[in-house]
Automatic annotation (TrEMBL):
It catalyses: ATP + protein L-histidine = ADP + protein N-phospho-L-histidine. Keywords: Kinase, Membrane, Transferase, Transmembrane, Transmembrane helix. InterPro entries: HATPase_C_sf, HATPase_dom, His_kinase_dom, PAS, PAS-like_dom_sf, Sig_transdc_His_kin-like_C. It comes from the Bacteria. It comes from Dyella thiooxydans. Its EC number is 2.7.13.3. Residues 245-452 form the Histidine kinase domain. This is histidine kinase. Pfam families: HATPase_c. GO terms for molecular function: protein histidine kinase activity. SMART domains: HATPase_c. The chain crosses the membrane at residues 26-48, 54-72. The lineage of its organism: Bacteria, Pseudomonadati, Pseudomonadota, Gammaproteobacteria, Lysobacterales. It is an enzyme of class 2 (transferase).
Length: 458
């Protein structure tokens, strides 16, 4: 992954032949401290008894000793500060491994400088780890990610973007968005879907961009998502699942038909025919007809699922519709609990078909134990909820309950729940199938928006 250009380094301190002002002040101050003693010694040597050669040597020795003391004092004061300056200069250059040695009156300052170096070292390590993680994350993304500076020059891109633009990094880095043909994408509203041709490929893309700010300067983040490829992959997987199910169902019917047809053909070639040939032919033809009928019903169910017309909505009173659905089921009594007087905007035929499918599943689940089946409705958070409760074994632990042709019942087509959900979604609603919490069984919930309310996601 390309990285931004490093910022220019801080210029080094200019060298100077003269002593720094701080050292000159130390020397001057020390000389002023020594001056009264030197003047007193000179006055005592010069006064009263006249100047003697020994006095000159004493004065010279006092001057030399004062100079040495001034130099010693300067070193004591300046060298620690030079060490601190070297530590700070190392921090400025990014070397956080040096540490100062505590001692004397400057312990607190040494401690603070060492703590600062430790903190900067930890922060640099965290920054490097975060940068590495960010680079790996961007490299793993299928979306093309590009970052532009305030002059719309490209400063960062991931491998997906490089593949989309079909060029080397050094050819892309630093070029303007207009030169790369990406300025029209930055001018589009964020979240726009459009057809576009890149150097790497063409198709349908989702364009998202956002402003950035780095070191006080503006920039732009551009993310390009190839939604066409995602849709093609989903379509391919859907076709594979469909063909797998169709092949399974068709083979289940054709295999016995083919076997029985071969048996009947062999029987017809026998001469003379056995005495029970009529019965064999009749049972064989019945088997062929049964399997052909099952295959025809399966294909009819598939056709009904794929050719569901748009709902013809009108105002429908809910209670009479549910009473009618409850009366259609004769295998078990269905308890219709009273609810509020409601009307909804729906296609009554389609809604009735969806409820029949849910009620049929509930009855078939409750039949082995002769359990109760309850049909009720209520209003919750601006939505009309129609619930079908049974006392069966509960819903199977599977994520494929609403997948077409998936079934856990012997002889089931796997169409009922899928068709019911398709009808509910066509009415801006949905369906869920969950286990009951207070007793055994399942509860199927079909929710629809209440007239005048916006549909909500449950």
């Amino acid at each position: 992954m390309a990285t931004p250009e490093p910022p220019p380094s801080t210029p080094a301190r200019p060298a100077s032949a003269r002593l720094p002002a701080y050292e000159r002040r130390i020397l001057g101050g020390s000389a002023l401290i020594a001056a009264p003693g030197l003047l007193a010694a000179a006055f005592m040597a010069w006064g009263g008894r006249g100047w003697r050669e020994a006095d000159g040597w004493v004065l010279a020795a006092a001057v030399v000793v004062a100079a040495l003391l001034v130099r010693w004092q300067r070193r004591r004061l300046v060298y620690p500060l030079q060490s601190f300056a070297s530590l700070l200069d190392a921090l400025r250059l990014g070397d956080y491994s040096l540490r100062g040695r505590a001692g004397g009156a400057l312990d607190d300052l040494v401690y603070d400088i060492n703590a600062l170096a430790e903190r900067l070292q930890q922060e640099r390590l965290q920054f490097e780890e975060s940068s590495y993680l960010l680079g790996k994350t961007l490299a793993a993304l299928d979306n093309a990610v590009l970052v532009f500076d305030q002059d719309t020059r490209l400063r960062l891109l991931n491998p997906a973007a490089q593949q989309l633009l079909q060029a080397d990094r050094h050819q892309l880095f630093g070029r303007r968005a207009e030169e790369l043909g990406l300025q029209p994408l930055l001018d589009q509203p964020s979240g726009q879907l459009l057809n576009h041709r890149f150097a790497g490929r063409s198709g349908r893309f989702e364009i998202r961009h956002a402003p950035l700010r780095t070191e006080g300067h503006g920039g732009r983040l551009l993310v390009i998502n190839d939604v066409g490829r995602v849709l093609r992959e989903e379509e391919r997987q859907a076709w594979q699942r469909l063909l797998r199910v169709l092949g399974h169902e068709v083979n289940n019917s054709l295999a016995p038909i083919q076997s029985m047809a071969g048996t009947l053909a062999t029987l017809a070639l026998r001469d003379p025919l056995p005495e029970d040939w009529r019965e064999d032919f009749r049972s064989g033809l019945e088997l062929i007809g049964h399997r052909a009928g099952a295959l025809a019903r399966f294909l009819a169910s598939y056709s009904r699922l794929t050719r569901l017309p748009p709902p013809q909505k009108r105002e429908v009173p809910l209670a009479p519709l549910l009473e009618k659905v409850a009366r259609l089921e004769l295998r078990l009594p269905v308890t219709l609990e009273p609810g509020p007087a409601l009307s909804l905007t729906a296609d009554p035929d389609q809604l009735e078909q969806a409820l029949i499918n849910l009620l049929r599943n509930a009855v078939e689940a409750s039949l082995p134990a002769q359990g109760a089946v309850i049909l009720r409705w209520r209003v919750d958070d601006g939505q009309i909820l129609i619930e079908v409760l049974d006392e069966g074994e509960g819903p199977p632990a599977s994520d494929n309950l609403f997948v077409p042709f998936f079934t856990t019942k012997p002889g089931g087509s796997g169409i009922g729940l899928a068709l019911a959900r398709q009808i509910a979604e066509a009415h801006d609603g949905g369906i869920s199938l969950l286990a009951r919490t207070n007793t055994r069984g399942a509860v199927a919930t079909l929710w629809l928006p209440q007239p005048g309310e916006h549909p909500q996601t449950r």
